[in-house]
């Protein structure tokens, strides 16, 4: 997809959403904001260990059309009510609607997808001293839900960039990443790190985001897939996962225990060749994954800086093996996707995101893409697993305001 095409698609989607907004809420929105999902190229479970990650924003995104309540203009202007509607949560079944008040918002007072915008309002009040007035919001998204591509973070990021612009809050991108992390951790109740929001906020077309999760220093490293005749194929196993479940937080606790036992504040401070023999076997494996994964991220980032994207495949596959055997967050469907893709000619493959379901990615030459797709589909059919969804993604720009073209405003 060329840049021109993707920009046009985005403008068209935004224009359609703005028109729909007017139909639903009876007034034009103040604007439309976009926030992409992400694929993590490498660096899994390292973010909450203050380590390194290398995700990229993808060409699938959440869009929100938003209108603030204005005193004197709106009948309910003096209220702090937020009215939400989504074309997304129930595709094909009409709009889902929700409502909450910005005043006195506490965790538990908004459920399902409404918890994401509500969590952002909560985090802005708790951590940025911002009091958010009532607003109307219409959501649409092309990030598949439950696929491990950060559909929920995309919603949170779209909401925070919209409110930041509309209320003139002057927040910078790392600051917005931190606030949306608070929204997830404190309001939604998922103990996740800062990678996904950062990719959605700071991604750039044609590049991956090399992020130091301790300092939040970041660098865009080139990821010129098309120029090298390469694709990143997403293999969504359609095994749904949730990071509010026990597995993710158990891994996080193991890492914290490991760091404490090694006398370090976090595993980032532990040298790659540290002696782990004093730890129990399971903690050793968890820690070994984090230490080795940080090294792999550094190596892949360097290869990308050197223009050697076609030599990162083995490191991607090594990451998967470490996640499967040491960190134990894979599942049979993810392992099968990786094995089948490699057997059919992929240069490297790994699960992406938190694991326990969701998606794997494969780095494939354009010439091999059909064979890899066919190999994965037939391996899943042979095992009697649900058919996976296969699609390619490109590194895209991070979140922002979408300029509506004239027809979109009518
Ligand atoms: C999820 C979390 C991230 C990160 C990954 C694992 O996507 O939201 O913060 O921890 O899992 O790398």
Please tell me about this protein's structure:
- With about 400 residues, this protein is of the alpha+beta class.
- It folds into two domains: about 5-220 and about 395-400, Ribosomal Protein S5, domain 2 (2-Layer Sandwich), CATH 3.30.230; about 225-395, 2-Layer Sandwich (Alpha-Beta Plaits), CATH 3.30.70.890.
- The protein is about 40% helix and about 20% strand.
- The strands form two sheets. Strands 1, 2, 3, 4, 5, 6, 7 and 12 form an eight-stranded mixed sheet that branches. It has a four-stranded antiparallel sheet with strand order 9-10-8-11.
- A hairpin with a 5-residue loop joins strand 6 and strand 7 (about 220).
- It is globular and about 65 Å long.
- The two termini are about 30 Å apart.
- The mean pLDDT is about 95.
- Alpha-D-galactopyranose (GLA) binds near residues 44, 47, 48, 193 and 196.
Features of this protein?
alpha+beta, Ribosomal Protein S5, domain 2, Alpha-Beta Plaits, eight-stranded mixed sheet, four-stranded antiparallel sheet, 39% helix, binds alpha-D-galactopyranose
């Amino acid at each position: 997809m060329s840049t021109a095409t993707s920009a046009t698609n985005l403008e068209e989607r935004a224009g359609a959403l703005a028109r729909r907004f007017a139909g639903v809420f009876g007034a034009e929105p103040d604007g439309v904001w976009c926030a992409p999902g992400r694929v993590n190229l490498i660096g899994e479970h390292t973010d909450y260990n203050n380590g390194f990650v290398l995700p990229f924003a993808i060409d699938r995104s959440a869009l929100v059309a938003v209108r603030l309540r204005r005193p004197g203009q709106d009948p309910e202007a003096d209220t702090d009510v937020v009215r939400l509607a989504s074309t997304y949560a129930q595709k094909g079944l009409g709009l889902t609607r929700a409502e909450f008040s910005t005043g006195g918002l506490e965790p538990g007072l908004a459920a399902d997808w409404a918890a994401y915008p509500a969590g952002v309002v909560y985090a802005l009040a708790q951590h940025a001293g911002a009091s958010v007035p009532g607003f109307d919001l219409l959501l649409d998204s092309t990030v598949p839900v439950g696929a491990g591509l950060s559909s929920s973070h995309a919603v949170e990021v779209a909401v925070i960039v919209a409110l930041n612009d509309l209320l003139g809050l002057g927040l910078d991108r790392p600051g917005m990443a931190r606030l949306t992390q608070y929204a997830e951790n404190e309001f939604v109740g998922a103990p996740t790190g800062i990678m996904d929001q950062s990719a959605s906020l700071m991604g750039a077309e044609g590049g991956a985001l090399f992020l130091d999760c301790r300092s939040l220093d970041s660098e865009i490293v080139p990821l010129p897939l098309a120029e090298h005749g390469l694709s990143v194929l997403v293999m969504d196993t359609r095994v749904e996962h949730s990071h509010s479940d026990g597995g993710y937080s158990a891994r996080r606790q193991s890492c914290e225990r490991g760091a404490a036992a090694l006398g370090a504040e976090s595993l980032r401070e532990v040298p790659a060749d540290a002696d782990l023999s004093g730890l129990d076997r399971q903690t050793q494996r968890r820690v070994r994954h984090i230490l080795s994964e940080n090294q792999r991220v550094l190596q892949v980032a360097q290869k990308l800086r050197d223009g050697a994207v076609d030599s990162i495949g083995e490191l991607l596959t090594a990451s998967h093996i470490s996640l499967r055997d040491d960190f134990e967050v894979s599942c049979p469907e993810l392992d099968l996707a990786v094995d089948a893709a490699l057997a059919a000619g992929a240069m490297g493959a790994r699960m992406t995101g938190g694991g326990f379901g969701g998606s794997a990615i494969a780095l494939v030459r354009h010439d091999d893409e059909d064979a890899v797709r066919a190999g994965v589909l037939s391996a899943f059919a042979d095992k009697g697993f649900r058919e996976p969804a296969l699609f390619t993604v490109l590194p895209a720009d991070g979140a922002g305001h979408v300029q509506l073209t004239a027809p979109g405003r009518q």
